[in-house]
Write a structure and sequence with these properties.
The complex is a heterodimer of chains A (about 290) and B (about 280).
Chain A: H1 2-9, E1 15-24, E2 31-41, E3 46-50, H2 57-65, E4 72-77, E5 80-81, E6 89-92, H3 104-108, H4 110-115, H5 119-132, H6 148-160, E7 166-170, H7 178-194, E8 198-203, H8 206-212, E9 215-219, E10 226-231, H9 246-259
Parallel strand pairs in A: 3-8, 3-9, 6-7, 7-8
Antiparallel strand pairs in A: 1-2, 1-4, 4-5, 9-10
Helix pairs in contact in A: 5-6
Chain B: H1 2-6, H2 24-46, H3 62-73, H4 77-109, H5 111-124, H6 129-139, H7 143-168, H8 172-180, H9 185-214, H10 216-220, H11 228-237, H12 241-269, H13 271-279
Classes of the chains: A alpha/beta (about 290), B mainly alpha (about 280).
Chain lengths: ~290, ~280
């Protein structure tokens, strides 16, 4: 608990992205996924990046995590260049990446194990964090024994145990049903109120972006550019009733117009924080 | 903290897999199938069926084989035969497991080793155990070692290929996540790649255990005075046809049992994998 309190005090997680271009693919398949993106995110800010499928918003997240590299421009977190993945920049995928062979508790404790924290201490801290995300009693289950929403909660707990200054979330609730998604959004806001980190949250769900963020950055279709910035002043803690307010509806209409200028547009294949298209090595028959 | 947790309802739609049910009907059908095979064998051998391309005139009947087996089981040599064969298979298999898993992880994980180690191994792979006999005799000073070597080559390739496949099939997202959580190169290998490849490795070990027995007769043709393969081969040279089949069946049963044993060990080590499979 003391560990959790500590992290809320520090003023880290300042993201500076300056004139970043990212190219993906090899040879003739090479294309520009991101074009001249400049973003500044304040410590502790909740930013949603909203854009159509395949626009490169996940690519940006992958570069922030350190899994992809920009072809031009600079990406800095707290004045240090991002070169490779680091536990200070936690990444949450759309589909959970929990280790299926580890129990829920050991999954959450993984980051501490990597730091060399003694077993007893790391399991206790993992347990505290599981309580925080409402999963007390599920410590000894395997990930495959949990529902999709619960798996994402474990995933979030596993990232938070490292006290990251930045949490990068790639459509983390995109694969969940509508009811579970709303529940997870509320949970995320409650957890974020306790453990203050900078959050960059990727989504193509307008309601989700409006409900969660301090600020929304809207991206264009490929090559991705920031075409609009919307500051949100809904008071926190937020309740679901803001979603029916006139102001919310007005903003939603505005976002819809930005995202779907012409409805005949063919949706692009989804990109991931690890690049695209997925490169598979040749397999030989066994 | 607990207040926060309680504000979000826990949806407990967790499905625990049902225990595998004991199904007497299924077992009965399987036993019946075996019995029918023995009956067909009995009929073919007693009626001395001759189909032109294959003849059963010299094939011993199940009863003859049963008598020969009974005799072997009550003789003192059976223990020596079993001991010799089992120790050869185990030694060859363990060496193959060690080499196969180590090489498989290197080849599957690092391009450098894929380019340098895989080509020679691919050339060696199709060479059958029998073809190794002369060279094995020349290479190893003791015939015991050459026999172990032949069971080793039999078991090596299934283990190697399944390990490579298992390592290459590791979800890149799991590796990315582990790196984002602070895993070093060594930790990645031990904490992510190896456990993720374990189901593949155990598939290889199960098949490899089978092929080790498969190569046993070949190996024991080399020399020796003991071993099931030796017993089988000797029975042929002294025209004791019923005993050939006793030897064959013994190898079959032992191979099947040891493969099942390896699979069981795998299931015990990977409860998570058994759960996943039952779910899907």
């Amino acid at each position: 608990m003391t560990q959790l309190a500590q992290s809320s005090g520090k003023q880290t997680g300042h993201i500076e992205i300056s004139q970043v271009h990212i190219h993906l693919g090899e040879g003739s398949d090479r294309f520009e996924a991101l074009q001249n993106v400049t973003i500044d995110v304040a410590p502790g800010e909740f930013v949603c990046i909203l854009g159509p499928s395949g626009c490169g918003k996940s690519t940006l997240l992958g570069a922030l995590a350190g899994h992809l590299h920009q072809s031009r421009g600079t990406i800095q977190v707290d004045s240090a260049s991002v070169a490779k993945p680091h536990p200070d920049r936690g990444l949450v995928f759309q589909h959970h990446t929990l280790f299926p062979w580890k129990s829920v508790l050991n999954n959450v404790a993984f980051g501490l194990k990597m730091q060399g924290v003694p077993r007893k201490e790391r399991l206790q801290r993992a347990k505290d964090l599981l309580n925080l995300v409402g999963l007390a009693g599920f410590e000894n289950r395997f990930p495959s024994q949990l529902s999709g929403g619960m798996q994402q909660r474990v995933e979030i707990a596993r990232v938070l145990i490292n006290h990251p200054s930045v949490m990068l979330m790639d459509e983390p609730f995109g694969a969940l049903d509508a009811q579970t998604r709303l529940m997870m959004q509320q949970l995320l806001l409650e957890v974020w109120a306790r453990i203050r980190t900078t959050i960059v949250f990727i989504t193509h769900d307008i309601d989700e972006a409006l409900f969660l963020a301090d600020r929304i950055l809207v991206m264009s279709p490929r090559p991705g550019r920031i075409i609009e910035e919307i500051a949100l002043d809904f008071p926190r803690p937020r309740q679901t009733d803001i979603m029916t307010s006139a102001h919310f509806t007005e903003l939603k209409r505005h976002c819809l117009a930005l995202l779907h200028p012409d409805s005949n547009h063919e949706p692009l294949p989804r990109l991931t924080p690890l690049g695209s298209p997925p490169v598979t090595r040749m397999q030989f028959a066994v | 903290m607990s207040a926060l947790a309680s504000s979000v309802a826990v949806v407990d739609d967790v499905k625990l897999p049902a225990k595998r049910q004991f199904n007497p009907g299924k077992i009965a059908i399987r036993l019946l199938s075996l019995a029918v095979c023995v009956l067909i064998w009995h009929w073919a051998s007693t009626a001395r069926v001759n189909l032109g391309i294959v003849a059963f005139q010299n094939v011993p009947t199940p009863v003859d084989v049963f008598h020969a087996a009974w005799e072997l089981l009550h003789s003192s040599v059976i223990v020596s035969h079993l001991k010799a064969s089992i120790s050869r298979v185990i030694t060859g298999f363990l060496a193959a497991a060690l080499a196969g898993i180590a090489l498989g992880v290197l080849i599957g994980r690092y391009r450098v080793f894929e380019n340098t180690l895989l080509p020679p191994l691919e050339v060696l792979r199709p060479i059958p155990a029998v073809a190794w006999i002369p060279l094995a005799i020349l290479m190893f000073p003791s015939s015991e070692m050459s026999m172990i070597y032949i069971t080793f080559t039999g078991a090596l390739f299934p283990i190697l290929l399944n390990t490579i496949h298992g390592v290459e099939a590791v979800d890149p997202r799991l590796i990315a996540s582990a790196r984002s959580l602070g895993a070093t190169r060594t930790a990645l290998l031990l904490e992510v790649v190896l456990p993720a490849a374990t189901p593949g490795i155990f598939t290889g070990l199960t098949i490899g255990m089978g092929t080790a027995w498969f190569c046993l007769v070949t190996a024991e043709m080399i020399s020796g005075q003991f071993g099931i393969g030796y017993y089988t081969w000797m029975s042929y040279t002294i025209q004791n046809y019923a005993e050939i089949i006793v030897g064959m069946l013994l190898i079959g049963v032992l191979g099947m049992a040891s493969s099942a044993l390896v699979r069981q060990i795998g299931n015990l080590l990977m409860p998570w994998y058994t759960l996943q499979r039952k779910k899907s």
